[in-house]
Each structure stands twice: as structure tokens, then as C-alpha cells.
Amino acid sequence: RLPAGEVERHCRPDPGGEVLLRQAMQRLGLSARAYHRVLRVARTLADLAGAERPGAAQVAEAIQYRRSLDSR
Predict the structure, then answer these.
(1) Which of these, 33, 45, 1, 31, lies nearest to 17 by C-alpha position?
(2) Which residue, 4, 10, 49, 50, has fewest beta-carbon neighbours within 10 Å?
């Protein structure tokens, strides 16, 4: 498991993903812990897609997973 500082370095999304994630943080009130969890999931999704970095699609999917878990 990556520490928070390493998550920032290894899981950084592309510019489109970064904008989407920042907007989600503001609109959904995500905590720093939730931010890092979304980044980790987005990185995993990018790996599965063969992408070098998480993009907006992977970030959006990770946010959706987060929201579906929060609504339970």
C-alpha cells in the first residue's frame, strides 16, 4: 500500500482527470483520505486499460464507485 505522498507521485492523473477530481472534491465534499482512495482506484483502472496515467474516464469511474459505496 502506498503512503499518501507516494500516491500523489505515482497516481497523478492527466490534466483532464485532475480537473474532474478537483471539481468532485469541491462538489461532493471529499476528504483528503477519499481523494487518495479515488486516485488509487483510478490508477488501478488506468493500469487495467493499459494507460500510462489515469484520465478523466478512469477518475470518473473511480468517483462513481466511491459514490455508490457512500450511498449504502
Answers:
(1) 45
(2) 50
Q: For the segment 5-56, what is each residue's pLDDT rounded down to a tens digit? A: 888 888 999 999 999 999 999 999 999 999 999 999 999 999 999 999 999 9
| Cell numbers for 32 | 483528503
Q: What is the pLDDT of residues 1-15, one digit of tens each?
A: 788 888 888 899 999
Spatial distance between the Cα atoms of 66 and 45, rounded to a whole number of angstroms:
13
A 10 A CB-CB count for 46 gives 23
What DSSP assignment string belongs to 15-48? HHHHHHHHHHHHHHT--HHHHHHHHHHHHHHHHH
